[in-house]
Fold this protein.
Amino acid sequence: MSTTQNELHIAVPEEKSEQKHGQMSLEEDFDYSQRGQWLRAAVLGATDGLVSVASLMMGVGAVKQDVRAMILTGFAGLVAGACSMAIGEFVSVSSQRDVEVAQMKRDMRIAGNDDESEKEALPNPIQAAAASALAFMLGAIMPLLAAAFIVDHKVRLGVVVATVSLALVAFGWIGAVLGRTPVVKSCFRILVGGWLAMAITFGLTKWIGSTGL
């Protein structure tokens, strides 16, 4: 009787140990590439909207001091960019879905299986287009709001640059944390890229405006 009790007592922690080990294995085997797919699209859309609209506004600000001109240019960039992102994402995801559906039909024909439940897991082009447009508008609205209520031209340009810089660091940090990548490297890379885009647009527009073209 005592031997049986000892055996049972030993078996319980072994079962718990196996269960704990299984949970650890599931955590270790988690694929962050799936999370990175939607995260990349969201961060890319928001960053694109932020940098492109801010660069447009900086370019106009290089030759015009009128706040109305900067805001209208930025708003036009927001609308055009959001439409472009939505259309591009819709076409891209639709093409990907067509390829996956065709492959799925070939696999089912070979296997002799008519179960089409796997189609529910396929990407949705409309949702992807809406998400890309929304992410772009979220990023693009930041420099617009930063410049809308500032009268002084030089201060307005400085506030736009500062706002964009902070937003770029935030986007880089979010992408690094959720994607489990180095934070400093991600923030530095996205920040330098945004600065270059604004500086090049400002400099070239200033130069073309000074030549009288």
